[in-house]
Design goal:
The protein has helices spanning about 20-35, 40-45, 50-60, 65-70, 95-115, and strands at about 35, 80-85, 90, 95. It is mainly alpha-helical and about 120 residues long. It has one domain (about 20-115). It has a two-stranded antiparallel ribbon with strand order 1-4. The longest helix is centred in the C-terminal third of the chain and has 22 residues, at about 95-115. It is globular.
Length: about 120
Amino acid sequence: MMNDTTVQEKKMLSRKSPEVIAYIQMVEKAKRDAEVVTLREWYDSTPNHLQEIIDYMAVYKQLGPLGKELHKRGIKRVTERFGDNVRTLVEATYQRGLLDASAPLCAIACIINRKLES
């Protein structure tokens, strides 16, 4: 028999809840104060990608595996994902310079791992 004090209910967050609004405002301020971008913003706004990123996109066609590889390699995030277990309300963000240096290396790791798996 379970005791009411041992049961912890998950708190579902709405996009309009004060906690989420405050967190989104904090993320927007952090992005303005430093050149902070999501992985998609970085990819879309970089005029000339290195060949490693071009090769990665030819194989994967999307940025999800690259984001997982960045996380696996311990690349520091400015903000973390924040959600309600249903959807992501704020995505992870990174400093642009850090992505410029680490994303091509992680892209190579993704491509090598894919070749090893097949």
